[in-house]
Amino acid sequence: MRACVARSSSGRLRLDALTIAPFAAASQFASHERRTEDCVNRESALPHTLTVIDALILSNRAMECQTAARTSASRCAPRARVRFAAFGTNFNPAVSAPSTLAHIAERVDVRIRELLDTELIRWSAVDPDLAAPLSSLRDLVLAGGKRLRPAFCHWAFVGAGGDPSDHNVIDAGAGLELLHTFALVHDDVMDASLRRRGMDAVHVQFIHAHRRNGWRAEDRRFGEGVAILVGDLAFVYADLLMNDLPRAAQAIFTELRIEVNIGQYLDLLGTVRGGPSVESAQRICTYKSGKYTIERPLHLGAALAGEHERFDAALSAYGLPLGEAFQLKDDLLGALGDEIVTGKPVGDDLREGKPTALVARALSAATPAQRTLLDRIGHTDLRSEEIAAIQEILVDTGAAALVEAQIGELRDQAIGAIRSSGLTPLAVESLISLAFYVTDRDR
User: What Å distances lie between residue 404 and 3, 107, 270, 407, CA to CA?
Assistant: First the structure.
């Protein structure tokens, strides 16, 4: 693979990480190089066999680039995996969400809405003031989200022989989403994030309510206190949905909850220590996100089907590398993504000093002058122009290209593992499709 850094006609920084894609047949690959200034060679491994889904996805990418080439004077590679700009970064082309994801999400959303609407009516009858926190929870969880955890749970369950209409897998998916909402609400308090899913974070909503009403005491403490309670409610409702699941599934859910808290502590600690290593960033990736987003939901699905002992090892071989790739993609989007698309201010991770592999790689390759600026990461008074300069360093040092290449390698490793997992063919193909989606998404 060849990673190229160049200036666009508008003067904005651009990086293209070029990969190999098929033109003639699904099993044949042809390399295509693009020469621009400051090119750095990178090597990348590609899978040797392709499924029909693989071929369709990769062929679509090639077609998109060919279309772009007709409107551009420059040559276009079969696939330009990422394009970074100092402001308003675009990751092109983003893979569309698999159609099955929307179907799974719809069933999960119906269950969540049913539960929270019932609770809202019940507690509002006790005291009308209780409508505010419950409405805030309901609005946040239904405001968006990719519903990846329910999808991984679903396909492991179906792939292990489960009935897709079983209400247990729907409840488990809804429980996973409510647990995720708990984590988001608390994470926003810990990180002092202002936005979530294109709307005010929960603690910000209640800070504003305090100010509008002219209440006593400190508005920040009130807002953050309410947000902690809203997160706790999401945690309890997740437990409620898991009550009727088999004991093996409940044990996995308990382990998942422990791991996400352990990962969050490591993330907080790494943030205040600064100067992350690639190894520590990888450990945080695994426990804060990888296991909790992909591996454990897969295990939960297999346990619901009564087949966790048979499939757990194969699901881990898929879930752990893909979970790491998922978090690495989050790191790229958090530092270089499009704020309008992600729904969260780009640059927040830099102000918060998140201990990411992206920053660790940049630090290891930075010049003394670049390192001086990178040392500003983690300062809450980081200015917009400093963020833009740091973004350029993340690209100039090759860190962004290395992380993007690593994402592709981890995805290919996961796909190789799931192909030999023994799950049903439909589940295997669906999990391969999800692997492309989570690594090539733009939000």
Answer: 10, 33, 22, 5
User: CA separation (Å) from 216 to 43, 128, 204, 209, 442?
Assistant: 60, 20, 17, 12, 42
Q: How far apart are CA 108 and CA 181, in angstroms?
A: 14
Whether the CB-CB separation of 343 and 370 falls below 8 Å is answered with no
- Neighbour order of strands in the sheet with 13-19: 39-41, 2-7, 13-19, 79-83
Residue-wise pLDDT tens digits, 379-430: 888 898 999 999 999 999 999 999 999 999 999 999 999 999 999 999 999 9
Encode pLDDT of 116-139 as tens digits: 999 999 999 999 999 999 999 999
CA distance 15 to 400: 9
Cα dist from 316 to 161, 295, 321, 323, 416, whole Å: 18, 6, 8, 10, 12
CA distance 299 to 314: 10
- Phi-psi label, residue 39: left if phi above 0, alpha if psi -120 to 50, beta otherwise: beta
Tokens describing residue 411 = 């995805």
Task: With residue 282 as reference, give the H or E element that holds it.
Answer: helix 278-284
Contact call for residues 256 and 291 (beta carbons, < 8 A): yes
Report pTM: 0.78
Tell me which residue has tokens 């539960």.
Answer: 115
Rounded to an integer, what distance in angstroms lies between the CA atom of residue 128 and that of residue 14?
53
- Nearest CA to 295 among 113, 418, 424? 418
Q: Is the dihedral of CA 288, 294, 412, 80 positive or negative?
A: negative
Backbone angles phi, psi at 196, to 5 degrees: -150, 125
